[in-house]
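Workshop exercise sheet. Pairs work together: one partner reads the sequence aloud, the other fills in the structure field after running the prediction. Swap roles for the next sheet.
Pair: D.N. / O.F.
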Amino acid sequence: MFDCEINGIKLQVAPGTTILDAARQVNVKIPTLCYHPDLPAWAACGICVVKVEGSPKMLRACATPVGPGMKIITHDPEIVRVRRTVLELILSTHPNDCLQCPRNGNCELQTLAAEFGIREVPYQKRVRDLPQDDSTPSLILNPSKCINCGRCVLVCQQMQNVWALEFQGRGENVRMAPSADFKLNESPCIKCGQCSAHCPVGAIYERDETRKAWDALEDPDKHCIVQIAPAVRVAIGEAFGLPPGTLLTGKLYAALRRLGFHAVFDTNFGADLTIMEEGTEFVQRFAHGKGALPLITSCCPAWTDYMEKFAPDFTENFSTAKSPHEMVGALSKTYYARKKGLDPAKIFGVSIMPCTAKKYEITRTDEMFSSGHQDIDVVLTTRELARMLKSAGIVFDQLPDEECDLLLGDYTGAGTIFGVTGGVMEAALRTAHHLITGENLGDVRFEQVRGLEGVKEAIIDIEGTQIRIAVAHWMCNIEKVLDRVRKTRADGKEPYYHFIEVMACRGGCVGGGGQPYGATDEIRRRRTAGLYQDDEGSTYRCSHENPHVLKLYQEFLDKPLSKKAHNLLHTHYKSRPQYKANRG
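Structure field:
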């Protein structure tokens, strides 16, 4: 630790601390645009400039480490004038259509312009007329609004290792675009939405499909059903001023009924069902040699997309189980329709997801129409649902708690932790222990797979049977895990791992690309804590204990991996190497 000063305030900081972080320690806010705590600082925007005694020039606080004895000035009239000029230059190349922008009211550029009191721009407007890219079912690119902060490019290349986005051109003609100017749907993009979650303005955003949901709710011939993913219940409150991680399951059920949905289900039920199918699949492969090891989880559609494009040599290792919301979708138009005497063609299914890739997933293969109809009709992100609730005049935080429709809604603690990194693995291990030993665990927690470390490895001992597992989240980490498996294959050895969980987004679904803006690791931890709270408070904490899942098998599916279960709840994968060739 060494001494320094910020605006005359003395403090001690550790070596490597940036001026930006040091200022926060003494409650001084330095404005930023290109900086994000998930990403390496690269000082692109210049709005965070500060003065340092002895330096002839202003330094950029996000990328400048504090030195011993350094005396820093973060705000004075000259610094404010420079920052204002930077903002005015950015605004001179930015459209003025804030009212129509999807980031209106939640835009970092708009916020800074208001804070600096900018009402006029003294420079000639030079807004480029660049075409929107709406080629994917998940995301829309509007390069005219890009401020060249570079966040999306850093996320795509360094955080996700996808390389679908890069900078094209030079100087004032530089722009963000898919590699080689492909359409986004022709690029390596995996639709994870992390670019949109990190974009400070409206240059990248989710495809809004709330109009489809409103139209269906208005149609008297449609029976509208809805389900909510695990991570939505601990993030939706942020849109209404509640702390991250606030558990709002009951209020969500109530709000969705007030919107007009006829039945409210829960994706957590589908998560329990996934564990029954995937857990049985793992035991078949591990204990009976019926299939390749390691088994790799398949609940994340962005990871599925990545595997088909960049790791097709692992196709046979992928669990064939569909993701939980697709399972609920298939059952809503078969099992639920039969129980209620409804025409499946008139059932309109909506999934509320923390994920933009789910919009792509619902038409990914023919198996997503296993009910004889499209199993899920519309996917809305957490952000889209928040907009619907606000436009409907629902005072969300004042709603009474309600229950879901139990037929496809009741869930265990194992189902709810699907929303965090390590949660799918933990849920699977709880049931795998039962399937292998015939007994339930006393302590169902697997601390080895919890936390935000990029790759977590462990050896789980189940009564003398050792299971080697790995959990990876945010895509830049998965190649390390896959390469270890590839090496043992090449050496002709036993599998390096028996079971692997992958989630494309940092923290898992709690940090999904469709969650409320502004996620940091602290916010991800608080959302995660909310889901573990839900788990701890559940009557049942293992998927195989869910009475409604057991009843479903008894009445309809017969048993895990049965023929009917395969037809409704499983899928397949294929190699798509052409996208690898388009990688930046």
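Discussion prompt: The CA atoms of residues 413 and 534 lie 7 Å apart. What would you look at next?
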